[in-house]
Each structure stands twice: as C-alpha cells, then as structure tokens.
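Exercise 7b. Backbone tokens:
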C-alpha cells in the first residue's frame, strides 16, 4: 500500500469495509496475472505490503473479513489450455512475515495455540523460499504418474508430459518409497541458464525473456513438451501431498527422505530451536542471496514435528505451522502520464495511474493504483510528475510518493469526476461512514442501469470461481452485451443463447470473430455448466461481501438452493428469526447479512435470480462423512477451554465434519462449555440445546 495511506487504527468501520473490498479485487487480479499468465505486474515485496495491509485491517475489524479476502484465497484459477487435476491434498499458500518482530510473534503464537510455556523450545526448519513455479508430482509404486501446478490450490493444470522433461524430476524413484507419494516443490531456472537462454534467443532474432521465474513458469506450461525439454529447468523438493505411508515424523526427516528417493533438496535448510536461531539463518541466507545463482524472495519457517503440525492445522488459505519471512521491496522512479477511471462491479470508481514503462525487479510496470481521490490528494500527485513506485508480488504496483523537485511546469491537476464515465453519465455518490460524513469510495449511482456495472457482474458470473464457462471471457461478455441480435444483459440470458441463435436469421457463426467451431464450442460449454454446485451458485450472484469462503459457509449451512434462497428472501423481508439463524453461522456477520438482505430485497435482483434458477440445476452441498459422531452437527464452543485453545477446538470440530457457529440458535445441536460460560450457556438452556463440558467433548469424539 502507498506509504501515505492512513494508519489502520484511524480507519472507521465504513472506510475499512471499502478498503477491504478494494484489496480483495486488486490482489485477486494480480494473483491471476502471476499464477495464470506468469506475467506479474509488480514485485513480491509490494504485493506483500498489500496483503499485510489487508491482514492488519481484518485483525482490527474481524467482523468485516470478506470471504473473497486474500487471506482466504490461494493462487489463481486454472488456465483453460490445460486439463484440470484435482489435488488430493490442497496446495495452500503461506502467511508472510516482514520483520524480525513478526517472526518472534509467529513463534509466540504457536506456543500460545499449543498452550506451551513461553520459553518452551519449538524446533523448526528454515529454508530458502525459491522464486519459481510450485509443482506437485504424484508417484505410484515409485513411478511418476502425474504432475500438476498449484492452480487455485484445489485444482491445478496437468503438466505431466512437461514435468517428465525436467532433468531434476525423476521418472522412477530410488530407494524404497511409499506406494503413493506426492512430492511438492519448486521449478526454477538459474541465473546462468537464464542468461544463456536469452543469448540464444537474441542470436536467433527471437524475443528475449524478462526474468528467470516467469521464464521457468512459462516453460513448464508449454503445450508442446519439446519446448520444455529444451529449457534448462531445475526442481527443489520440500513438501508433500498424499502419502500412503509416512517415511518420517518430522519435516526435516521428510526432506531427507526425498533426497534418498532421488530429488534435489536445498542444502541451506537447517533446524532451529528458537526465534533467534531462525533470524540468524534468515540473515545468513540474505547475505548469501546474491551468490546463490538462483532467485529467492525470503526464508520459510516450518514446525519440524509433524504431530504438532497436525495439531496446529490450518487457518483459511495458510497453515498455522509455517510462515514465509520475505525480503524487502524494490523501488524505481518513472513519469505519471495520466490517470484513468475504472468502474467496478459494485460501482466503485477507482483511479489508475498510467506510467511511463519502468522495470522494477525484472518486471515492466506500466500501471499503478491510486485507490481513491483522497489518496491522490494525500500524495499530492499531478499528471506529469516523477513518482517513486514500488513493486511487490502479484498485484498492481503502488505509488509511494512524488519527487517534487522534478515537477514540470506543465504538470496538470487531476479532477475526480462527479459523474460516471459510462454513457448514462449518472451522478457519483460518496457513501456515509456512519456519522453523517462522507465515505472514501465514490460510486456510480446508476447501479444495474450502469453498463459498466452490468458488464462487471456478468464477468464475475462466468469467472473461474463462479460458473467457469470456457470461451466466455471478458471480450466475449463485451460482445454479447452490445450485440443487437443475441444480447446478454443478465446471467439467465447466457443459457438461452443457443436457442435464440437458432431462431435468428443472422447466426453467431457468421459474425466477425466467430465461426462454426467456436460458436458450437461455446454453446457446448454453456450446456456443460447447467449443473452447478450450491457454493458456486451463491458466489456467482455477486452479492457484496459474499466471496468464495462465505459462499461455502452458507452452502454448507443451508445445504440446498431452496433453503438458502428462502432464508435470503426471509432476511430481505426482515424476518427476525431468519436473520438470527444466519447470524449464528460462524464467520457470518452483519455486513454479509445486510448485503444479502439488500440484494434479495431489490426486485430486479429477485427477477434475475428466479430467471437464472429456472435455467440451471443447483446441486446440494456435499454433506460431511458420517463416520464421525458429530458429523453434520452445529456446535458452539463457549467459556475457557483448558485442554486446547478455542481455535484448535474449532479446527478439530471442522475436521470431524461439524459446523461451528459463533452463537446459539434453534439450529444449534451441541454446546461445549468451559469455565466462565455466560450468555450462550443461558441461551442454550432456554432452547433446550444439549450442553457438555470439555472432557465430555473428548469422550464423545473419541480423542
């Protein structure tokens, strides 16, 4: 985030909500650029600064945590060019540390979570964080059977043929490996190999490459495996997915096993017993960074004991038992050539700086976010200024400040528009911040009448994490939105395209940019998405504050489209009981409920939803496995737990297939109460909900 951003502790709730919405969109876009296109727009440190800002706001305003928050998301959708592979064990990302203090806090959090003494040793490994492409290799009976990229963490791209061409990746394992073994690590390219490749490209009159990371990623994701074979790719192994029989009970032991099986592992990986030892290794690796011969962007710390890893578990997109300590950001100066306004799905107007291209950390930067009008004013930036930009990761870069002494005489002040740049020229409004003042975010007041917003809603609907319709990308949505013969103005229109095309004299196949094959493929892809999972359906509606994780929570809680739809309509109609039941769901707060009420309370939206529901079949949410005594139950933990922390209790219940709620309602099945339980215990008694203590909980689940 820009240095001039107001401190998190000064934000109002409304300002925090708006900024979290922007951060979710911004980081998501650059996750896509980095993971899907291998073309990041900025450097790792700047990206991390955005994630750090997001996390700080979420920690101060936990009730505002969005389900599409970057803290709950991994990677990016899978490219449509490759067959999809479902990971048996999700490939999650790591939380980040940016200072020595963050590392000390990380170790302290682990001790607190495990209820260890403040000075109890916690043995961890420290290893370089390779700047490459994550890859999961599946071996059965010692033979490589598949290779997949991280993708969105749940599904990756099948790059098996290309992985077989990487010399560092054995096709047959040595030693005595488990019958099923998924080895995970990083594909990368050394500096020397990268320079040699560029010299060959230049000698042959071909385009040269920007940096080793993108080149390695692009090489592995070639449709022609012979191209991959011609590239000097390497691989470090450091993690695993599904394993039939664990060869060790420690992180370091697993890495040693990988080496016995024939993999290269990083020689700088060491075991440490304290935060001080971790930091010493960090600075040792940092000093050696320039001489390593390959790119790293930090050091990763992991709890060594696998039993403790299991106890610590995961929080959203990241394991609690690991963290990445990142190296500082890189900066550069360039000229601000102009400022454009973009209108998002919710009508928010975002100013985007257009920069004279500049290379920062090996990546060419041409755009930077300016967030809002207040940010432009705080920075004091004018068109024509020389500005300092910082690049960090997968996101649009940030402008840190203006070099005032280089301001040209003809520099122009930017005037934020008072009307939407759409054809309707509808007024721009600023939302109240709860005390009668004006909010930071300006929005187009046209809502669904605004073409920009309608197009963005449609783009969201067909996006990878929603309906995921192949062949219906941004350009195609624009085409159909403006096409007079086959207009698509709402999601339901998509599913009538083939029928309407059959009734039209002018066929889609005859239109510019289309043909018989592309039209037939699109219609087939649409038909293939008439059956959709409940969580995807909810997410696809584009309700504010309802991201992927919230959609999953709602789907799991209500189970079917009918039950969710009826509850949403009841909430919109101010049904107090329906609101109470929704509010009782864990991680669902007023912001989400108000957004659902507003969405289903608007007649246009209800019509849109009913029309869409008539075109598709929404599958019920997957029910938890029935082999646990608490599977499918809604459980509330209250009071002080003594044998495990509240977070650990929640994670344990969810692993057993239960739903954890934050408050007691008529749908609560069980309350686990520790000392000091108060109002929740009273509410449980009023509703006749079963209450047990912590010991009884362990007895019930057989732990």
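Sequence design result:
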């Amino acid at each position: 985030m820009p240095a001039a951003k107001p401190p998190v502790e000064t934000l109002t709730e409304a300002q925090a909500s708006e900024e979290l919405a922007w951060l979710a969109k911004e980081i998501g876009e650059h996750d896509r650029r980095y993971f899907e296109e291998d073309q990041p727009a900025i450097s790792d440190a700047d990206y991390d600064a955005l994630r750090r800002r997001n996390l700080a706001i979420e920690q101060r305003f936990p009730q505002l945590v969005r389900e599409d928050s970057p803290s709950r998301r991994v990677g990016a959708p899978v490219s449509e060019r490759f067959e999809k592979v479902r990971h048996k064990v999700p490939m999650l990302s790591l939380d980040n540390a940016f200072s020595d203090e963050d590392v000390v806090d990380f170790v302290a959090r682990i001790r607190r979570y495990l209820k260890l003494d403040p000075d109890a040793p916690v043995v961890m490994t420290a290893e370089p964080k390779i700047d490459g492409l994550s890859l999961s290799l599946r071996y059965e009976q010692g033979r490589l059977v598949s290779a997949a990229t991280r993708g969105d963490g749940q599904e990756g791209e099948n790059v098996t043929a290309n992985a077989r061409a990487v010399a560092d990746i054995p096709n047959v394992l040595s030693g005595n490996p488990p019958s099923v073994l998924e080895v995970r690590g990083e594909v990368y390219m050394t500096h020397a190999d990268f320079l040699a490749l560029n010299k060959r490209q230049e000698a042959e009159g071909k385009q040269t490459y920007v940096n080793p990371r993108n080149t390695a990623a692009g090489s592995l994701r070639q449709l022609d495996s012979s191209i991959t074979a011609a590239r000097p790719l390497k691989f470090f192994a450091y993690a695993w997915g599904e394993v039939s029989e664990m060869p060790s009970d420690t992180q370091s032991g697993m890495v040693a096993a990988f080496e016995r099986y024939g993999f290269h592992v990083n020689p700088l990986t060491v075991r440490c017993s304290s935060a001080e030892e971790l930091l010493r290794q960090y600075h040792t690796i940092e000093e050696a960074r320039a001489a390593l011969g390959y790119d790293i962007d930090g050091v990763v710390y992991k709890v060594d004991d696998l039993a403790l890893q299991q106890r610590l578990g995961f929080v959203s997109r990241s394991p609690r038992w690991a963290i990445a300590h990142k190296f500082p950001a890189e900066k550069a100066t360039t000229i601000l050539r102009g400022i454009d306004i973009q209108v998002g799905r919710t009508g928010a107007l975002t100013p985007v700086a257009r920069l004279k291209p500049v290379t920062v950390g090996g990546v060419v930067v041409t755009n930077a976010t300016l967030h809002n009008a207040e940010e432009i004013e705080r920075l004091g930036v004018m068109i024509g200024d020389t500005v300092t930009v910082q690049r960090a990761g997968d996101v649009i870069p940030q402008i840190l400040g203006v070099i005032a002494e280089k301001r040209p005489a003809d520099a122009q002040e930017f005037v934020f528009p008072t009307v939407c740049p759409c054809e309707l020229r509808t007024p721009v409004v600023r939302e109240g911040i709860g005390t009668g003042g004006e909010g930071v975010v300006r929005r187009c007041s046209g809502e669904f009448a605004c073409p920009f917003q309608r197009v963005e809603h449609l783009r969201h609907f067909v996006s990878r994490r929603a309906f995921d319709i192949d062949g219906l990308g941004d350009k195609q949505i624009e085409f159909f939105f403006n096409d007079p013969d086959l207009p698509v103005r709402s999601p339901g229109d998509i599913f009538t395209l083939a029928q309407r095309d059959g009734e039209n004299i002018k066929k889609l196949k005859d239109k510019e940019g289309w043909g018989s094959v592309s039209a037939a493929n699109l219609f087939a892809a649409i038909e293939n998405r008439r059956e959709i999972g409940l969580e995807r359906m909810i997410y696809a509606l584009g309700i504010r504050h309802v991201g992927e994780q919230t959609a999953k929570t709602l789907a799991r809680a209500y189970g079917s489209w009918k039950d969710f739809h009826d509850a949403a309509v009841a909430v919109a109609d101010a049904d107090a009981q329906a609101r109470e039941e929704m509010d009782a769901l864990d991680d669902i707060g007023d912001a989400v409920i108000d957004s659902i009420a507003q969405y289903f309370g608007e007649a246009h939206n209800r019509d849109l939803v009913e029309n869409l529901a008539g075109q598709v079949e929404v599958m019920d949410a997957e029910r938890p496995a029935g082999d646990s005594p608490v599977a499918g139950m809604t459980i509330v933990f209250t009071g002080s737990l003594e044998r495990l922390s509240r977070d650990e209790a929640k994670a344990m219940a969810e692993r057993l297939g239960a739903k954890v709620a934050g408050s007691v309602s008529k749908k609560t099945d069980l309350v686990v109460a520790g000392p000091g339980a108060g109002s929740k215990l009273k509410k449980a008694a009023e509703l006749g909900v079963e209450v047990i203590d912590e010991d009884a909980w362990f007895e019930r689940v057989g732990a």
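Instructor comment: The radius of gyration is 26 Å. The mean pLDDT is 84.
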